[in-house]
Specification:
It is globular and about 50 Å long. The chain has a domain of 123 residues. Helix 2 packs across helix 7. The N terminus is likely disordered. The protein has 202 residues and is mainly alpha-helical. 22% of the residues are buried. The structure holds protoporphyrin IX containing FE (HEM). Protoporphyrin IX containing FE binds next to helix 2, helix 3, helix 6 and helix 7.
Length: 202
Amino acid sequence: MKEEIGFPDTHSKMGNEWPFPAKILHVFLVAGVTFQLITGLMGWCTGRIPFFTWHTLVGRMLILVIFLQWLWLFCFAQGRSVLMYLFPVSLSGLKSVLQDVKELMHYKLADPGPRAGLPGLMHGIFLLSATLVAAAGLVLFGTFHGWWTGLPIGLLLQILRWGAVALALQWIGHVGMASLHALIGEPLWRIFNLIHCRQKKS
Ligand code: HEM
């Protein structure tokens, strides 16, 4: 079982363990986006965002987390490796994605862990979508506070609403796939284990 042998080292330079910055940023991103999704979509449905002050406060903290995430991805060596997993634009990366898609069609889940492939690409798309939606939220927030004027509020609100729907669908897909992996006993919850970050060399 993969749980016993760990993920194959050939998958990535990081072995089977995500680096600490990736883990902590992931936790904050998941928590922040989830809170914004629930409060934002409830606001759309009911006409009034519950905990609106918290929506804008958590929203601004989420902007900071997203900024730190991109900073780490571009400015640190480990981050740049992860960037290639999120956006596998190389030939070998694209081959890994295609291989994962083929295997998925035969009901075989892609290997989790730090590697290029379908799960990484889906995370990349999620991060891009969250960045776009959160940026629209911040621009709207700035408009309400008079930081700038003349921006199309209606369009920004539509980007937020439909962007939130796209994020919610990805969120459901994400949790669904994660649950399937967990069902077959793969140790992918380790992304949430902030204590154990050194890679196992066994
Ligand atoms: C992934 C992140 C986010 C999601 C999913 C999200 C979701 C939403 C949704 C669905 C709405 C529309 C609610 C409605 O129709 O009444 C909304 C409105 C809003 N959001 Fe967010 N949001 C996010 C990030 C942010 C950020 C970063 C800020 C600001 C710092 C922010 C501030 C606002 C404001 C000011 C509104 C307008 C409320 C109104 O119409 O009165 N949001 N958000």
